[in-house]
Amino acid sequence: MPAGLVTPAAPALPDTSAVLDTFVVPAGSAPSAPSAVPVTPAVPGGSAMSTGSVVLVVAIVLAVLCVVPGLTRMVGLFGPVAGEQPRRPAPTPDTLGLLTATVVVAFAAKLTDHVAWLPAYAYLGVVGVLLAAVDARVHRLPDVITLPSYPVLAGLFGIAAVLDGGPGRWVRAVLVAVAVLALFTAFWALPGAGLGFGDVKLSGLLGGALGWLGVPVALTGLLAGIALAGVWALVLMVTRRAGRRTSIAYGPFLLTGAFVGVLGWNAG
After folding, report:
1. What mean pLDDT is reported for the chain?
2. Could you tell me the pTM of the whole model?
3. pLDDT tens for residues 139-150?
């Protein structure tokens, strides 16, 4: 090599050992398994239901079924207004028990995500079936059942509001109950409306229970009840089993509409 010439140094290669260490797994070792993530069984609606909630639901349903045998006797205690005869015999214990169980179990299935609400709706289911049976038989909605149900439901929903930390629902339920009561009172005062004052008192009770779930639910339930009563009245007139002035029992239809409203409620 001639003097004075300097050979440039070869460029240094990068150290790949660190990169290779990333991909090469030492012999005798295996990749570590990902840590297990506990999976909680979910109930419809996407939320978990604890064992305690299941036990509470079952206990409430069983408690309701225990009072069923007394319901038939209670239906027979209420006679028609003076000078009239019962429209139909009292339902059998099996019939009343099956209907009550169906309503309460349906509410329990719907409210699995809100177990704190279930006592109120279980009470409404039992009282509702009782009132529907009495009204269908003798066209009466006894005050001795309807009026005490106001403070009972207010208390049960109050407990639910405390447990859920949502007093706004309780306030809304009260406001809807008052509004529905005023609206049905206005309907009752109209000539030829066909509503009894027992229907008015029942409407406020149902308005509060539906208002707990939301104003749209209250509108749906009450309108469904009115529509069902209208369809039944039309059927009776078409088949000539009733005339324009024939009174019908509105209570069973209002209660059925409330049942439809609760089951149609969408938590989302």
Report:
1. 80
2. 0.76
3. 999 999 999 999
